[in-house]
Amino acid sequence: MMRGAHWIAGAALALATSVAGTGVAMAQRSSGRPPWAGDLIAAQLVEVRDKTGQVLLHGALTTTKDTAKETERKADLANPAGQAGKGEIEISIERKDGGMTANEIDLDVEKLPALLGCEVFLDGRWIGALVTSKNGKGKLDLDWKAPRDR
Q1: DSSP 41-93
Q2: What pLDDT, in 10s, does the model give residues 22-78?
Q3: d(CA 120, CA 126)
Q4: How far apart are CA 90 and CA 13, in angstroms?
């Protein structure tokens, strides 16, 4: 009788592990690329907004390097009303065999109000948030690497 109970418990554990393992793998495969990692090559407008939606900084992305393996894009950010505040954003897109393998976004801001919650947008699409320091500086770094095929 004990042998049967152990077998049933072992089979149930194996089935649960198998189902859970499949669920995790499926979730990893289906999660794919984050929304901000869309077509960064075509992105044009970068905006840093406060929580009310007011644009504090903005800039237009330009391509500074474009090879078969990597594209780099940059923008200087300025206040649209000419007030204090500035920043820069750098985007790196890596490719291999015609497919995107990694994206990296580095954004730095300064001379903004202290301890201010800000949201960052690319072409009107939200990509992240930051809070400025007591000195009015802030940073947002985003990285994505394509999952490797097994």
Answers
A1: TT--EEEEEETT--EEEEEE-EEEEE-SSEEEEEEEEE-TTS-S-EEEEEEEE
A2: 222 222 223 456 666 667 888 999 999 999 999 999 999 999 999 999 999 999 999
A3: 6
A4: 48
Question: Which one-letter DSSP state was computed for residue 11?
Answer: H
**Which residues form the domain of 91?**
38-145
* Alpha-carbon dihedral angle through residues 127, 90, 103, 70, given to the nearest 10 degrees: 150
Q: Compute the distance between CA of residue 102 and CA of residue 92 in angstroms, rounded to an integer.
A: 8
pTM, 2 dp: 0.74
Residue 150 lies in a domain: no
- Tell me which H or E stretch contains 144: strand 138-145
The verdict on 62 and 13 lying in the same domain is no
C-alpha–C-alpha distance, residues 141 and 89, integer Å? 10
